Amino acid sequence: MPIHNSQFTIHNSPFFARFWRFAGSFSVRTKILGIVLALVLLLGVGVTVQVRGVLAQALEQRLQEQSVSVARDVAARATDMILINDLFSLHQLLVETQVNNPDVRYAFVTAPDGAVLAHTFGPGFPPDLLAANPVRARDHHQTVLLQTDEGMVWDTAVPIFEGKAGVARVGLSEASMQITIAALTGQMLLTTVIVSAVGIAAATLLTWVVTRPIIDLKQAAEAVGQGDFQRRVAPWANDEIGELAGAFNAMTADLAQAEQERAERDHLRSQLLEKVIAAQEEERRRIARELHDETGQSLTSLMVHLQMVNQQCPLPETREQLDGVRSLVAQTLDNVHNLALELRPSVLDDLGLAAALRRYVRDYQTRYALEVDLEIVGLEERLNPALETAVYRIIQESLTNIARHAQAHMASVLLEQRHGRIRAIIEDDGVGFDWEAVKSNGRLGLYGMRERVELLNGTLTIESEPGQGTSIFVEAPL
Amino acid sequence: MRYYLLLLAFFSLAGCAAPAAEASVNLSDLQPLPEVSATAVTPLRVAVAAIISPKGTVQSYTPLLTYLSAELDRPVELVQRRTYGEVNDLIESGDIDLAFVCTSAYVVGKREFDMQLLAAPQVMGDTVYHSLLIVPTDSPAQSMADLRGAVFAFTDPISTSGRNYPIRLVQQMGETPESFFSRTFYTYSHDDAIRAVANLVADGAAVDSLVYAFAVEREPELAEKTRVIHTSPAFGIPPVVVSPNARPQLVADLQTALLQMHTSAAGRIALKTAGIDRFVLIDDAAYESVRELETAVSRDP
Fold it and tell me: Is the ipTM, as predicted for this complex, more than 0.85?
């Protein structure tokens, strides 16, 4: 695929990269202005140079021809004057020739022996001029271009009466031609400047026309990027940018719909999650009540009955065994109580979050032999039950994690209600953990905590590093 | 890279045609012209009266002058002046060694300072000529009387054939040129008078018959454009003269050279170019009719 290869080379060549870096460093406004200006200037200067050249050539040609025709005219009219030695008329002829042809710088007539018969120089005669254009008698004429101190001069020599009467010489200066050319050049350059000015104005308008929709598009894209899916771009024109605006609007509409669907799904998911959590809590509450009321009562009755059987039994061996059973039942009763408490402390429902937490922390310290510093600030009133449950569960989960994984000597819990928000900080001095590793492990406990908080429009932040302990910040509106 | 070349070509297209100067001259450096140095050998100065135009004179007389130069072993300079009078002045002052003059100029010169006859050309076997009255071919005029109110071209203020004779014709009708013609002007040569009629600048002119014959031979279209309506009586042919103060030896040498001219091949070619058979001696009496005409014209203004 040589074509593909070459394209690849071109697009990756350093030149191309430099070009794009250069071209990309200007705004569209500058680019359009640059294009217009470059075009106008290139055209203006190009045409000026070209026209100037053509005009110079044409005028030069004309001047050359004029020099021949004037010289031939002088030669024809001078013939008889020379032959009859009428030098005054000859001088008058030359002077009139110069007066009637402003381009004629000088005119003079030489005799066949080379002596100057008449000339227009006045007091003297340039010595180099005689030899500057030697013409042979049989020539029709001879024209040469002379470099003089007053500029270029087209000098034509015409033999008079086949050279028998001498030679007529006429020099036409390019001075007025140069003035004409300079005037034309000035005019054209002025025109170029004026057209450039008009071009700049037109380009500015054009830039505005082109960039206005683009700037609109950019602003709309930024708004959409920030979540404003209602933003639309006004259709300015029916061109490519108009099509882009249309595509952008269609895309934004699609995005808005997708966003709406996503929001609905999230809402559904949240509702579902809320229901699941509520159902779970309800189920725990039921099981805890069951355990407490039914199983606990049954076990208590069993213990009472075992006490009575023990007092009435005469056999010391049997009594001893019954004591063993009774203490087993008592332990089971304790376990059932703990289980019920774990599942759903009734005190949370009855006395609120603060009391339930104090109770839980007391039991926790007993069970895990770990000192917990619990500080509760504010929180005099009962909170929304869902919030109380969520905060309780998060602290419970955190403390359980500390007991199971942290190898901590000390933990602290701070709970405060302030400015309409509730804030909890759970810290330990344990081994800490790598948050990234835990995330990739797919541990659901932390996610569950976060889900609960987010359902209540709150936030949960975990700060932990291996060996540095762990801090969990929870914050939620009341 | 190709684009740069294209651009370069575009811009150089206009500039490449500028021609280069062939020499450099300082026009402000004005120096006095050198005086014309006097030639070591004094040239023989020959005047030819403006019977024909200056260019025609050069063409016709150059071989003749070259011949004289060879015969006399001296450079010869041709001197021309606009009028017969100017030539006469130069002969009188001695600035001219030899002159071909017209008849009336001779008559005036003879009277005023004794101009000397040297020889006379013989043309078509005779030493006379006529004044011809010519008009454009399409002109209805048949005689001088028909030219009343016309524009008339004279050749020279003292020409016999070109002025005195036609004025005499007008005078004989009891008129003056001023009353008879609407306008008159001088051409200062006979061939220019013929051209003036041929080109309808003049309605009529009187010209030297020798010049007319010579001119129509050279330029046949002049014959087509002009018509002769009157021929004068014969006058003595325009002579070759010298100043009364000329050195006798020079006069003798010149006379010999002229009279011997037809005997050499080079001389014959020179004579043929000038439209002359040969040179012959002539007597002052041949110009008596010219004198009478002049006297008549000056008497009857």
Answer: no
